[in-house]
Structure formats: C-alpha cells, structure tokens
Design a protein that fits this description.
Blueprint lengths: L1 H15 L3 E4 L8 E4 L5 H9 L2 H9 L9 H8 L6 E2 L2 E2 H7 L3 H13 L1
Antiparallel strand pairs: 1-2, 3-4
Helix pairs in contact: 2-3, 5-6
C-alpha cells in the first residue's frame, strides 16, 4: 500500500512540475526561455539541440528521483501528461522542432517500455 501511495505522489509531483519552455524563432532568434521547474529543462534543451546524448543523460539523472529504474523513468516521463515542452509532450515537441535524432531515440525507447 505504501508503494502505491509513493508512486502516486511521484506521478502527481512529476505532472505538477513538468517543464514548459517557450521559444522565440522570429528572425533566427533561438534563445530558450524556461518557465516552470527548470529541473526538467534539460529534456527540452536536448530536443531543441537534437542532442541524443543530452537526452539520455537527462533520463539517467532522474533514476532514483522519479522511479527506481530507467525503464520506469522513460515510461513516466514519455507520457504527455508528465513532461511538457512548450505545452506539448516531449516527442511531439521534438517532432515540431525537427529533431530527427531525438525523435528516433525517444520512439525506440517508447517501443521498448
């Protein structure tokens, strides 16, 4: 029973602190502006930079914080309700940013979980 309550609390916390990023693209301006919990901003940053290594590190850094193992971290954070960048789930956001390498990586991870 305690495990279920703990997991529910973690899910609620992740949902409530999801990272939102807003981006200015006008005239080639690609500065990142993060609003919300910057603890999750590395996911959005990795998507913008199309940096798979940064994305992997972002997930790895949440093991033990969000869930006990990496597979569960992926499952929790890949849910559109739990991690958002610019109001979109991380995969959809990566697609919008044309981050082909990150999209490919996230989709492969999502299929395995």
């Amino acid at each position: 029973m305690m495990k279920l309550k703990s997991m529910s609390a973690v899910l609620l916390a992740v949902a409530s602190v999801s990272s939102f990023a807003s981006f200015a693209d006008e005239a080639g301006d690609s500065r990142l502006v993060f609003v919300g919990d910057t603890e999750f901003s590395s996911f959005c940053r990795a998507a913008v930079k199309d940096d798979v290594s940064m994305m992997r590190r972002s997930f790895t850094n949440k093991v033990g914080v969000i869930a006990r193992d990496k597979r569960d971290v992926y499952e929790i954070l890949l849910s559109e309700d739990n991690l958002a960048c610019n109001g979109m789930g991380i995969i959809e956001f990566s697609k919008q940013r044309n981050s082909e390498q990150v999209v490919s990586y996230l989709q492969s991870v999502q299929q395995k979980s």
